[in-house]
Amino acid sequence: MLVFWRALSLILLLMPTMILQAAETKAGMEDFRAGVEAFEAGDLNAAKQRFQRAVDAGLRSPSLFYNLGVVCYQLGDYGAAESAFRSLLDGSNGALARYNLGLVALATEESAEARRWFEQASAESAPDKIRALARAQLNKLDGGSPRLARQPSIRGYLGISGGYDSNIAGLPEDTASSEGGVFLEALAAGTYERPVGTRSRLALDAAAYSREHPSDDEYDTQVLQGRLAWSETLAAGERGALVSLVKSWFGSESLETRYGIEGFYRWRECSLPVAPDQCGIALAAATVNGGSGFEAYDGQWYRARVHARKYLGPWRLDGDYSLEINDRRDLQTTSEFISVSPTHHTLEFAGRYRWRPDIVFGTTGSVRHSRYRDAHQLVSGEGESGRRTDNRLEIGLLVEKSLDSRWLARGEWLVRDNRSSLSQYDYQRQTLMFTLEGAF
């Protein structure tokens, strides 16, 4: 524990410049000053109470949340310390917050999590003092504390959702319903990670997802996924590879089984326009076996994806471009030929604004252009024949409320509009969803 206090004493040298920031409310500033005085006098409990009262009074300065995090850390209230430091992630003090989150993870003996925070805090874009401290902690994890460096970790996630969907079709690429209904969702995931060297690790994770429609179980969906991944930390970023097995069901019938591989590389610094703080690329491929009645989906699936992230004050901005190619058997009968082999070009954007430490507002958007490999041919029945091309626009809004250091509640509204060259594939969709999720 001595090393934690030494590191903390160094980082506290950065506090004076932060304490001078302006307050949003007079009462909050008075409590903040009283908290600083109590901290300097060594009365940590009183300092914590005063800092928390300043938060409750509406004060939102980064220095307040930093000092609150430090006091909670020293008192051993690591959950509250983590919550306070996380409120600084999206701003100019992000490197400082990441370093301290690494200290919190060390204190709770989560070495893999600590390593990730220290690696982010040691990026070249971080201030020199913080970068030096983070690299010193990484060196200790690599050689100075073998027990922590090689300790495996287990993490879990649980999300439970409910809402209303105006178009509950589970396969919009093949057909779209005009039926709306209430739905329930559940997602559970777990990861076991074990270091296999000073900078490499193996991870085994599993996830189970289910979406149920009480009004019509014909559109119910279930997915099971398992993955084995290897990753390695490098000076400039991280690289890795994984193999995966995914099994899905539509209604009560088996839909697809996918056997896939993926490789990725992530950079901590990116020489790109607008100078993103993080960026990465991933390449993936899979063999797909359709279930009984879904043999048209047999074939291969390929995807290339690039991602970038930028922090601007309280904003976190994410952008993605992906190219997805499907080479499927397609559906062919005596009366029709329907291609299920699209090429998708998708551009996605997400913005998150941290209004308060426990409240985040966000927006999402995507534009997707799809072109199907072969022309549809309908001899009889409703619908048009010809080459199918689609343009899909999606816009969403969300708000998140942190309940504590592990649980949060989220509300989302999503609007999707798909315009196709074949009229039978035009559809609109609105989804309103509320989620409770926790990370363990």
From TrEMBL:
InterPro entries for the chain: TPR-like_helical_dom_sf (IPR011990)
Keyword Signal applies: yes
Keyword vocabulary terms for this entry: Signal
Organism for this UniProt entry: Marinobacter adhaerens
One Pfam family named in its UniProt record: TPR_16
Protein name, per record: Tetratricopeptide repeat protein
Signal peptide: 1-22
